[in-house]
Amino acid sequence: MKAPRVLMLAFCLMGTVLLVLGSSPARAGITKRPRRDRRATMLRALPAGALAPSEPSFDGPATTPPGSAPRGSYQAISAAAASCGGTTATFSNTTPAGIPAPGTVTSTILVSGAGAYLLDLNAQTFLAHTLNGHLQVTLQSPAGTVATLTSNNGGMFANVFNGTVWDDQANPGGQVPYGSNPGLATDRAYADNVVATSLVPEEAMGAFIGEDPNGLWTLTIADMCVENPPMETCMDDMGAISRWSLDVTTLPAPPASRTTRFQNINTTTIPFGPSVVTSTLAVSGMGTYLGALKMHTFLAYPINMDLDVTLTSPAGTVVTITTDNGDSVNDGFNDTDWFDKADPAGQVPYADDPGLVTDRVFLRNRPAPALVPEEAMAAFNGEDPNGIWTLTVSVDAAGNRGSIDDWELFVTTLDVSGGDCALSCPGDVSVPAEPGRCSASVTYPPPVAGPCCGTVTCTDASGATFPVGTTTVVCTAAGGESCSFRVTVEQSTPPTVN
Questions:
Q1: Distance CA 396, CA 176 (A)
Q2: Which backbone phi and psi does 439 adopt, to 5 degrees?
Q3: 3-class DSSP string for 255-291
Q4: Statement: residue 131 has pLDDT above 80
Q5: 4 prior amide bond cis, ω within 30
Q6: Which residues contact 26 (CB under 8 A, 6 or more apart)?
């Protein structure tokens, strides 16, 4: 028997009042050749000295916690570090300098008045040259850290770096397997007189993060042409750096940070190629602004150069760890740390650089202890690290198999609160009650939040069941800023009682 309509409406309204009072705030391209082939013309290159990578401090318990972000939580990803309490200033050198062939030239920029903690760095070069594959280019900070922007990339083409912006976050996609990757200096398919407008450098500029940027920065350019007439000559090498600049984003002081290790100890078999396998790792309980990331791999495989490896963040950003590096020897990545600060030295000119996966000479049965990956880990900086991370291994040749025996992430988050949050809630929502019920499941758009909001929590999550009547939903950012909107469920037909 159906109850009288008036009684049921009163019951629905009572439920509404109770629920409101009970709410708590709360790439396709060219076929690549083995990486070592890029050194074929460097007959008189100087060998690099022994490098001793200085590893930053990582601490915290080894954990692999399950779970994900709580329902009703939203994370605003930082698109630009400057908007999270940081300040960006641009410094330039407009004095032209010719590049001797062969030879080396330097150009400097004095940074002053910036904050004491470097949060992000981009560089732009107007570097004209007839044969860019002969060039090695580094950037050195006032603290002495050296990062390689490019070493013998660009092929036999002209002027490909004549306006290039070097940015660790220039290539958020690029999942393996691929033939070329236009966002990476090492994997781009270059063309004559076509400027690569934005590139991830060969070595991460994340190596500079945390340093005091005030002082003299040095751009070093080496032309590695060789005189081997009649086959090779330096007569065709002509170039100059006409101007260059740095975009320096800083904080006034080092922010508070926390580092925790997360681990996947489950073995994943890498089948005979061509093949692609993935392994995942859950990160939870961390802050919402990633400041640094280090990965450790136990990756066993007979021929290193057959492997293409990427790491994908919960936000979907893909970073290339290695593609076709490691030469034709085994197990080069079978006990390896991957992080942006693994190679603080390595000044050009050099024939090889043991701290870079792209420039190291690998030996049989000798895993590289620490490497800068082919693409910057700093590409992830500013994202919320909580969620599922995915390691992808692609084998591009047949005949061998291997395994991912263990891999770990060292996750460092920063407290960069104090910037502009600018939290904005969606508009009011009105929906009819579901047939025969005095409630409705309501899905609403997430609040729009600035990059400094951190996690935004709403008292009633999108997709939750709302009672007949009007419910005020309050959304609160981690820093305390809040906004609200109303959800109204209208009783259009009498509910039924069984």
A1: 10
A2: -160, 175
A3: CCEEEEEEEECCCEEECCCCEEEEEEEEECCCCCCEE
A4: yes
A5: no
A6: 72, 457, 458, 459, 476
CA distance 299 to 389: 17
From residue 153, alpha-carbon distances to 12, 137, 269, 355, 402 in Å are: 70, 10, 34, 18, 30
Q: What is the pLDDT of residue 233?
A: 79
Query: pTM of the prediction?
Result: 0.72
- In the predicted model, is pLDDT for residue 36 greater than 60? no
Give the three-state DSSP class for 6: helix
Query: pLDDT by residue (tens digit) across 457-496?
Result: 899 999 999 999 999 999 988 767 789 999 999 987 665 5
Question: Taking a C-beta distance cutoff of 8 angstroms, is the pair 279, 411 a contact?
Answer: no
Structure tokens at 490: 């209208």
Other C-beta atoms lying within 10 Å of the C-beta of residue 298: 18
CB 257, CB 121: distance < 8 Å: no
Taking only the tens place, the pLDDT of each residue in 138-175 is 999 999 999 999 999 999 999 999 999 999 999 999 99
Cβ 143 vs Cβ 114: under 8 Å: no
pLDDT value of position 245: 98
Alpha-carbon gap, residue 120 to 401, rounded angstroms: 39
Output the CA torsion 16→22→23→24 (10° steps): 180
Which one-letter DSSP state was computed for residue 111?
Answer: E
The tokens describing 171, both together, are: 């290539």
CA-nearest of 378, 333, 409 to 203 is 378
- Looking at residue 55, its pLDDT comes to 30
DSSP class of residue 79? S
CA distance 24 to 47: 65
- Cα separation, 482 vs 404, in Å, equals 45
Specify whether the CB–CB gap between 38 and 45 falls below 8 A.
Answer: no
Backbone angles phi, psi at 151, to 5 degrees: -135, 105
**Radius of gyration over every alpha carbon of the chain, rounded to an integer in angstroms:** 27
Is there a contact between 208 and 145 (Cβ–Cβ < 8 Å)?
Answer: yes
E-only strand ranges, 301-401: 307-312, 318-323, 333-338, 370-371, 387-395
Backbone angles phi, psi at 21, to 5 degrees: -65, -30
The string over 259-290, giving b where at least 16 C-beta atoms fall within 10 Å of a residue's C-beta and e elsewhere, is bbbbebeeebebeebeebbebebbbbebbbbb
Encoding tokens for residue 79?
């698109």
Exposed, middle or buried by CB within 10 Å (0-12, 13-18, 19+), for 155?
middle
CA–CA separation, 180 vs 187, rounded Å?
5
